[in-house]
Write a structure and sequence with these properties.
This protein is mostly helical. The chain has 18 helices and six strands. Strands 1-2 form a two-stranded antiparallel sheet.
């Protein structure tokens, strides 16, 4: 992943240093377990625990000859340990060590992402509460529908984020597993106790059954959870981009002192954060497809998944980490313009009251379809310049004759549409 999108904490997880350090931890713990079984002598274990180390550049030198990264790693470790190294990797296969280490690293990345999602959820909840009375027009198909509040938008995103949190927690449990069961998963040269011991010490579970590699449906679930989260992020960002259009301008991204929007047009303040995250979200979703393709391996394993994972594992987690950081900053600094929301509501001259009039006519005993035709006919009559919809209704003798003055007076209050908002927010906030 390029440095531009990499925060240090997540980036560290996917460094070669952390990967090999985690694999070394697996190997040392396996030796500890074998010591308890009487396989590794005490003095040999002490040497392994105190001397085992590696150097990235040396591993690369050896790999240039062996063309095998794990053998290169083990060779370098042996150079530090000496004679006791004969016990390291005893009964294990490369995938035992690499996949178990990978389970640890993916759990680390999941825990970090979950902490960011919780912060994101908190920002959404705060902003939903702030704008629970900020009235605006709701749009369907991009066209004015009926009034709502901006707080409800935040609450909707918050509710969706809660599901993303739950999906990622489940996916974390799927991938936080290890296996040390040998070449085809039969424990032919290793005691099952060693697997249980190592996984417990690492804070992950032992897979109930695995061939040479941990099954990739687990990883597919993880990247799918990230992809769905990215879908939420893109949906939110697309909404904010629409609301920032000049002719709408109901919200605006923060604009720092000295910031420039265009090299040619000094007036520009572009929705660059929302656009950036829209694009990165597409990458995260695309990587999920590659993870799904990794499920179908030959027999007990092949390495067709390995090259894919070297790319998508750091890229998807680093990108998700980045967009969550940036999205929180965007929402915290988002300028919201209630006056423009109020102005835009009136662009349709009150046509959003059409369902209120329709319902009132039905309640007088008119068949629904007949009432619909009457209201639609009047609504389409506005022309240019537009006339206020209440005036058109009042001027329509067929409609007005059926509505009492009292009924008519109560039809055109925007607050009518918000009467249940408190109950909705209470339901969302409490669950």
């Amino acid at each position: 992943m390029i440095e531009r999108y990499t925060h240090p904490e997540m980036g560290h997880i996917w460094t070669l240093e952390n990967e090999f350090r985690t694999m070394l931890q697996v190997e040392i713990l396996a030796c500890e377990a074998m010591n308890k079984l009487g396989i590794v002598p005490d003095d040999a274990l002490k040497d392994i625990q105190t001397k085992a180390d590696f150097r990235i550049e040396r591993i690369k030198e050896i790999e240039a000859v062996t063309n095998h990264d794990i053998i290169a790693f083990l060779t370098n470790v042996a150079e530090y340990v000496g004679d006791a190294s004969k016990y390291i990797h005893k009964g294990l296969t490369s995938s035992d060590v690499k996949d178990t280490a990978l389970g640890v690293m993916m759990k680390q990345s999941a825990d970090l992402l979950l902490s960011h999602l919780e912060k994101f959820h908190a920002v959404l909840k705060r902003r939903a509460a702030e704008h629970k009375h900020t009235i605006m027009i709701g749009r369907t198909h991009g066209i004015h529908a009926e009034p709502m509040t901006f707080g409800l938008k935040f609450a909707l995103w918050m509710d969706e984020t809660e599901r993303n949190i739950e999906r990622l927690k489940q996916a974390r449990d799927f991938i936080a597993v290890g296996k040390l069961s040998g070449a085809v998963g039969t424990y032919s040269n290793i005691d099952p106790f060693i697997e249980e011991y190592v996984c417990e010490k690492l804070g992950i579970k032992a897979a109930r059954l695995a061939p040479q590699v941990i099954q990739r449906d687990r990883h597919a679930a993880y990247f799918t959870a990230l992809a769905v989260t990215a879908g939420t992020i893109e949906r939110l960002c697309v909404e904010l981009r629409h609301l920032q259009r000049t002719e709408v301008r109901e919200v605006e991204e923060g604009f720092g002192k000295g910031q420039k929007g265009s090299s040619a047009m000094p007036h520009k303040k572009n929705p660059i954060s929302a656009e950036n995250m829209t694009g990165l979200s597409r990458l995260i979703r695309t990587n999920a497809l590659a993870a799904l393709e990794n499920q179908a391996l030959w027999h007990e394993r092949d390495i067709s998944h390995s090259s894919v994972e070297r790319v998508i594992m750091p890229d998807s987690t680093i990108l998700t980490d980045y967009v969550l950081h940036r999205l929180c900053r965007l929402l915290e600094g988002l300028r919201i313009m209630p006056e423009n929301m109020a102005r835009n509501m009136e662009c349709s001259f009150g046509l959003y009251f059409s369902q209120r009039v329709l319902t009132a006519l039905i309640e007088t005993g008119i068949p629904r379809q007949e009432a619909y035709v009457m209201v639609q006919r009047t609504a389409m009559r506005g022309g240019e310049p537009r006339q206020p919809f209440p005036e058109l209704i009042k001027a329509d003798p067929e409609i007005n004759s059926r509505l009492s003055e009292e009924t008519f007076a109560g039809l055109f209050d925007p607050q009518f549409y918000l009467r249940h908002e408190g109950d909705i927010l209470k339901r969302v906030f409490e669950e």
